[in-house]
Amino acid sequence: MFTLRRLLQLPRLKRLLFAVTPAFVLLVTVETGLRIYGYRFSAKHLDTRIYEHDTEPGMMRTDPMLTQKAPYGQELCFKQTFPREKSPGTIRVAMVGESSVKQLGLAERLRERLRTSLGKPVEIVNFGFGTCGSERVLLSTREALEYEPDILLVYGCHNEFMSISNPATLPPPRC
Length: 175
Description:
It is built from five helices and six strands. It is of the alpha/beta class. A hairpin with a 5-residue loop joins strand 1 and strand 2.
């Protein structure tokens, strides 16, 4: 019989192996089981552009796939349409970030304050993406820069603990 006294008499390396091996075997077993039974996460929407060409020429719209309700009950992106080319004399503001930015929508108070202080029309384009981490914020920032914003607002990094790129951090789907 293997007792604690006998375990403590083993050399340090053997004790370490004895302690680590069960945890390692458990992790490998769980990982293998998840792979066999198809628990995979589709990261397709992580590299999907938020905006696509609208049916109206010269306009961009939110990808409809990203404005549908996700399994956890929330749309990933704010539904919006805007002109591809910025109107002359207009200040374009791109807001990039996680769900906090998405929830701002068109940020009417920000638009009004900027319009009043700058004396020019202001256009807000929302690149907020629900339950994402910094990897998605980086992709959204790159996309936002393609639309030549005059102001780029980036707010994020508080979703690293709950991100669609790591499904283990998400709550279970509602039935």
